[in-house]
Amino acid sequence: GAVVSQHPSWVICKSGTSVKIECRSLDFQATTMFWYRQFPKQSLMLMATSNEGSKATYEQGVEKDKFLINHASLTLSTLTVTSAHPEDSSFYICSAPIRISENSNQPQHFGDGTRLSIL
Amino acid sequence: GQNIDQPTEMTATEGAIVQINCTYQTSGFNGLFWYQQHAGEAPTFLSYNVLDGLEEKGRFSSFLSRSKGYSYLLLKELQMKDSASYLCAAPVAGAGSYQLTFGKGTKLSVIP
């Protein structure tokens, strides 16, 4: 079954609206979560690393005031796209990494993604 | 830094075999991953190679040559449902966990 739950799976809203996307780790704690964005026919691009109890780390070119990340608990990270515009329309995916000490051959568990369409 | 290259698109016939190549340049090696991603869905894990050689898993196999910075994903007995993007990814060890850098993906189209 799913180990990372992402919600909502699909959002359609008007330009200027703020949209919140939730990413939950199920049955395990995730002190770190990753947020990716994928435009059509392009690869996954890391936007930011969400850190529980501290500020998120943003990749170059990603506006931290535009994409607000909150990681208030060990099982929940949220991404809020503030004042969304049509160019923010994309597929957003979160993931929770596996601890290296767990010696797993899967580095991350992915959520199912959120398709955001701004009209 | 990380640099991962793979072909943009490939087309193959149902029932055939296809090989998707990936070359990588990484600062520190922590293995190489292959993911499958259908349109509009999140990636799903296919394989992980950390040692040289071929890892076989059913119809899918993955090969790694660390000295050449090269990997390939081999898909046998292609089925229509194998039409998807295949992403090569290299992990970077961070603070106790892995961050992944993805290639741009190879879109595979399987035709009858």
Give a structural overview.
Chain A has strands at 4-7, 10-13, 19-25, 32-38, 45-51, 57-58, 67-73, 76-81, 90-97, 108-110, 114-118. In chain A, β4 and β5 form a beta hairpin. The mean pLDDT of chain A is 89. In chain A, 38% of the residues are buried. Chain A is mostly beta strands. Chain A has no helices and 11 strands. Chain A is globular, with a radius of gyration of 14 Å. By secondary structure, chain B is mainly β. Helices cover 0% and strands 61% of the residues of chain B. Chain B has no helices and 11 strands. In chain B, the strands form 2 sheets. In chain B, strands 2, 4, 5, 9, 10 and 11 form a 6-stranded mixed sheet that branches. A 5-stranded antiparallel sheet of chain B has the order 1-3-8-7-6, with no helix packed on it. In chain B, β4 (32-37) and β5 form a beta hairpin. The relative contact order of chain B is 0.34. The mean pLDDT of chain B is 90. Chain A binds chain B through residues 32, 34, 41-46, 49, 91, 93, 95, 97-101, 105-108, 110-113, 115, and chain B through 31, 33, 40-45, 48, 87, 91, 93-105, 107.
Question: Outline of this structure?
Answer:
Chain A is mainly beta and 119 residues long. Chain A has strands at residues 4-7, 10-13, 19-25, 32-38, 45-51, 57-58, 67-73, 76-81, 90-97, 108-110, 114-118. In chain B, the strands form two sheets. In chain B, strands 2, 4, 5, 9, 10 and 11 form a six-stranded mixed beta sheet that branches.
The structural class of chain A is mainly beta
Shape by Cα distribution of chain A: globular
- The number of helical segments of chain B is 0
Poorly predicted runs of chain B? none
Strand segment tally of chain B: 11
Structural class of chain B: mainly beta
Which strand-content bin applies to the residues of chain B?
A: over 45%
Q: For the terminal residues of chain A, how far apart are their CA atoms?
A: 34 Å
Shape of chain B: globular
Largest interface: A-B, 26 and 25 residues
Helix count of chain A equals 0
Number of strands of chain A: 11
